[in-house]
């Protein structure tokens, strides 16, 4: 698998992936707007031109926040999400991030295991953060060290 910065050629697949994975999916247009946002890093995992998944974050004032991580069902349990998250961690550190934070559903046990395995720790809970179904969001964070940025190298 190759990890590359998100490009316009990825948008149709990513919008489809959003609809598959999230109760409030980002639209193709919302994803497209991130292409020109200097505060973001959206990375796509692909193999032989096929999109397997993606992960994206925003960084500002030393704080980085994961917007989304999604992997197509047929590519799950193959390390795609882990590799994308490792690349985001590297990018966040390279952008001067002091920490990377995210929310996750408590019921998403696979994602929780991934994030905890990468060193994220629970620092809070956002009541009724998710809907369809309504569920709290666990706030996780990981402290960062300086790295080389895969989005801008």
Automatic annotation (TrEMBL):
Catalysed reaction equations from the record: N-terminal L-alanyl-[ribosomal protein bS18] + acetyl-CoA = N-terminal N(alpha)-acetyl-L-alanyl-[ribosomal protein bS18] + CoA + H(+)
GO molecular function, one term: protein-N-terminal-alanine acetyltransferase activity
Subcellular location(s) per record: Cytoplasm
Superkingdom assignment: Bacteria
Keyword Ribosomal protein among record annotations: yes
Enzyme class at the top of the EC tree: transferase
Keywords associated with the record: Acyltransferase, Cytoplasm, Ribonucleoprotein, Ribosomal protein, Transferase
Main location: cytoplasm
Cellular component, GO, one term: cytoplasm
EC number: 2.3.1.266
Record Gene3D superfamilies: 3.40.630.30
Domain N-acetyltransferase, first and last residues per copy: 1-145
CDD domains to which the protein is assigned, alphabetical: NAT_SF
Function per UniProt: Acetylates the N-terminal alanine of ribosomal protein bS18.
Family (UniProt): Belongs to the acetyltransferase family. RimI subfamily.
NCBIfam families: rimI
Protein name in the entry: [Ribosomal protein bS18]-alanine N-acetyltransferase
Organism in which the protein naturally occurs: Candidatus Acutalibacter pullistercoris
Gene (UniProt): rimI
């Amino acid at each position: 698998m190759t990890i590359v910065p998100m490009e316009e050629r990825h948008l149709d697949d990513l919008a489809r992936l959003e609809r598959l994975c999230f109760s409030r999916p980002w639209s193709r247009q919302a994803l497209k707007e991130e292409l020109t946002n200097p505060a973001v890093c959206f990375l796509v995992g692909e193999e032989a031109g096929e999109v397997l998944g993606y992960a994206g974050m925003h960084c500002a004032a030393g704080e980085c926040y994961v917007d989304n991580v999604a992997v197509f069902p047929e590519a799950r349990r193959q390390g795609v999400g882990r590799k994308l998250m490792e690349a985001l961690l590297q990018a966040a550190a390279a952008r001067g991030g002091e920490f990377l934070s995210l929310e996750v559903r408590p019921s998403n046990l696979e994602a929780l295991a991934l994030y905890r395995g990468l060193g994220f720790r629970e620092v809070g809970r956002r009541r009724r953060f998710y809907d369809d179904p309504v569920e709290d969001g666990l706030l996780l964070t990981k402290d960062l060290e300086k790295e080389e940025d895969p989005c801008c190298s």
